[in-house]
Amino acid sequence: MTVALIGLGLIGGSFARDLRKSGLTTELLGVDADPAHAARALELGLVDRIVALGEAAREADALLLAVPVNAIETLLPSLLDTARDGQTVIDLGSTKLRIADAVREHPRRERYVAAHPMAGTENAGPDAALEGLFRNKTVLLCDLEWSAPDACKTALELFHAVGLKFEFMTAEQHDRHAAYVSHLSHVVAYALSLAVQSEEKAGYAVPRLAGGGFASTVRLAKSSPDMWVPIFEQNRDAILAAVAAFSDRVATFTRCLEERDWDRLDAYIREANRIRDLL
Fold it and tell me: Which of 169, 187, 208 is the last residue in one of the domains?
């Protein structure tokens, strides 16, 4: 199977590493709008060849879109315009509903599989690619009833090859769940980073006093706005609902402090500790 990775950063590059190791693919083609990223991906051996998008569309049996979601929304219809029978186009973006709506009535819609592997780091670019990034993680597969059986089979083979587990849902369900378990975490991390930087204007305390708890909580604030602003735009409504729910919990915490209600605060924290049963 010839696979084209469109976008050679963390997600595309990590897929390339694990697909090569799996032996499922015969050739890995790379496409990237940044010539430096393309050259580096080739140097790292992530892909066998760097090609133009049109060449990838002609030669690949499967195309994996690992670019920001606004770029996916633009590229996907044109890729489906030229999609041939037996070819599979898979998007790996962090939002689904708006992308799905962009091609819902496309005559070649069945060649498309909507997917979101729930894995990543705060790093970007080809050097961020990690072997084993997806092992035992979950890929969310959306609206598969709209995809051809052979396209679904190809997608499942590729995801199985890199170690992903499967969950199935609608695009609307995906965006609601992703707002809480992925997107809200980034909102909180960005806000925490800004709050601490504003308070510690001299920059003294952050590098010299911050411990592991702060570092792990704020890690996501290092994530690129090029990736995340389009996610916030596309999933705005669900993220606003998640932020409102979070803000209510912060308000409760604040009242406990203001009213010196330590018993209520103790119970509140114990309730939060139940996350241990889920993770």
Answer: 169
Phi/psi at 268 (5° precision):
-65, -45
Q: What single-letter DSSP state applies at residue 171? A: H
In the chain, the largest separation of any two C-alpha atoms, in whole Å, equals 67
Query: Could you tell me which residue, 2 or 218, shows the higher pLDDT?
Result: 2
Q: Tell me which long-range contacts 16-23 makes (C-beta under 8 A, separation of at least 24).
A: 16/41, 16/46, 16/47, 16/129, 17/46, 17/129, 17/130, 17/131, 18/131, 18/132, 18/133, 18/134, 18/135, 18/161, 18/162, 18/163, 19/158, 19/161, 19/162, 20/45, 20/46, 21/131, 22/161, 22/162
Q: pTM for the complete prediction?
A: 0.90
Contact 134, 165 (CB under 8 A): no
Count the neighbouring beta carbons within 10 Å of the beta carbon of residue 236. 15
- CATH code of residue 46: 3.40.50.720
Asked if the model's pLDDT at residue 217 lies above 90, the reply is no
Q: Which of 148, 169, 190 is a domain's end point? A: 169
Three-state secondary-structure class, residue 49: strand
Measure the CA–CA gap between 70 and 47, rounded to whole angstroms. Answer: 24
Mean pLDDT of 242-256: 96
Alpha helices by DSSP H, listed for the chain, are 10-22, 35-43, 53-59, 69-81, 97-103, 149-161, 171-178, 184-199, 205-209, 212-218, 225-234, 236-258, 262-273
CATH number at residue 198: 1.10.3660.10
